[in-house]
Design a protein that fits this description.
Blueprint: E1 3-4, E2 7-8, H1 15-18, H2 27-37, H3 50-63, H4 67-84, H5 87-94, H6 108-111
Helix pairs in contact: 2-3, 4-5
Length: 125
């Protein structure tokens, strides 16, 4: 399994798909990186040479923010929004959807499980 920036990328998949396992690299950015490195997108990850892997690593490291740095930057942005009290920060703080989704129904991922109400039987004399 080739390692790029501390991430094991799957060796059986095409390099175009396997490079997307790096946090911060999506479909468009993966194609841009491969084009800049001069690597065919249809090749498998196991077919890459050490020199090509180091070329990919250098391009990603020098030109893009990925992995731990990107995660840290995003979490700092969220914390900053919560501190200054903007609307998005308040939604983050309350654990509600941030981007304008409806909350009457749906949004179970953010809100958590429904609280159980009722369910008590009335005892008869």
């Amino acid at each position: 399994m080739p390692r790029i920036l501390g991430v094991d990328i799957p060796k059986q998949k095409r390099i175009e798909a396997s490079i997307k396992y790096i946090y911060g690299v999506g479909p468009k950015r993966a194609l841009d990186i491969l084009k800049e490195a001069g690597i065919d997108k249809d090749r498998r990850a196991k077919e890459l040479t050490e020199e090509e892997i180091s070329r990919l690593t250098n391009i990603i490291q020098n030109n893009y923010v990925t992995e731990g740095d990107l995660r840290r930057e995003i979490s700092q942005n969220v914390k900053r929004m919560m501190e200054i009290g903007v609307y998005r920060g308040l939604r983050h703080r309350k654990g509600l959807p941030v981007n304008g989704q409806r909350t009457k129904t749906n949004s179970r991922t953010r809100k958590g499980r429904k609280p159980t109400i009722g369910g008590q039987k009335i005892k008869k004399k």
